[in-house]
Amino acid sequence: MHELFHAISVFFHDLTDVGWTALAIAIVLHVLRLLTRVVAWRTILAAAYPGTRVPFAGVLGSYFAGVGVNSILPARSGDALKLVLVKRQIAGSSYATLAPTLLVETLFDTFVAGAIVAWALAQAVFPSLHALPKLPTIDWHWPLQHPQTAAVIGLVWATVIVLLIVIGARRVRGFWQRVRQGFAILSEPKRFLTGVMTWQAASWVLRAGSVYFFLQAFHVPATVRNTMFVLAVQSLATLLPFSPGGIGTQQGLIVYVFRGTGIPKTALLSFSVGMQIATTVVNVTLGFTAIAVMLRTVRWRQAILPDKENAYARGP
Predict the structure, then answer these.
(1) Contact at 8 Å (CB) between 256 and 135?
(2) End-to-end CA distance of the chain
(3) Among 24-38, 106-120, 188-202, 285-299, which stretch is predicted with the lowest mean pLDDT?
C-alpha cells in the first residue's frame, strides 16, 4: 500500500498540472452515466409493480444514495441502502421483489464486462493467479494466499443465504411469487431491450468516454486501446469488492496492465488515484445529498435501522 499512498501524495502535489477541461468533461460524462443507470433501474421496477407509481425522483435519490455509500464502504454496502430507500417510494413493495431487480440490473453489465475482460485476457495483459498476490497494491492477498480457507468461507456464506431463503419461503406464503415479480421485465423482451439494455449500453459508452477524458486530464495517452484496458481493470476489480470502490486493486492492476508501454508508473498511479478520487467525491456528494433530502439526515444507518428491524419482524 506504500505505492498507493505515495501516488496519492504525488497526485495532490501535481494538482496544478491536471487538465481541468478534460477533467470537467470526464465528470459530466460520469454523472450522465449514473442517470442512464437510474432510468434502466426504474424500468425494471415499473415492470415489477405494474399499475403502481414508481417516482423517478425517488428512484434517482435511492440509486445515488447507494452509489455514494458504495464509494466509501466495501462489499456493496450501498445496495442495502438502495433497497431500503426505494421501498419507501413504491407503495406495497417488498424486499423479496426489490432485491431481484438489482440482479436484473446487472445482467447486461455482466455480459459487457465479461466481453471486455475476455478481450483483455486475449491480449495477455492481466497477471496470472500466481502473480496476483505479489502485486503490492492489490487487496486480494489473503484469499489468494489461503484459497482453501477462502473457498470454505464462501461456501458457508452461500449455504447461509440459501438456508435463509428456504426458511423465509416456508415462513411466508407467496414469498417465491414476490421474488419472481422482481424478474418480471425479463418476460417482456422488447421492453427489456428498449427500456433497460439500450440505456445500459449508453451507460457503457459514457463510461468509456469518461475514462478517455480522465486519461487526457492526467496526461496519460488517451487512446481507444488504453481506454479499453482501464475498463477491463475496473470490471475485474468489481468482482471482489473487498475495498471501497476497489481502491488498491485498480491501482495494482493498472500498473501491471500498462507495463512495457513506456508510461511512468508514477503517472499511471496518479491517473488511477486521481480518477478514483474525482469519481468518489462526485458519488459521495450526490449520494449524501440524496440521503439528506430523502431522510432529512445524513445518519443513514440510524434512519434505516428501524426499517430493517420491522422487515425482520415481518419476515421476508
Answers:
(1) yes
(2) 41
(3) 285-299
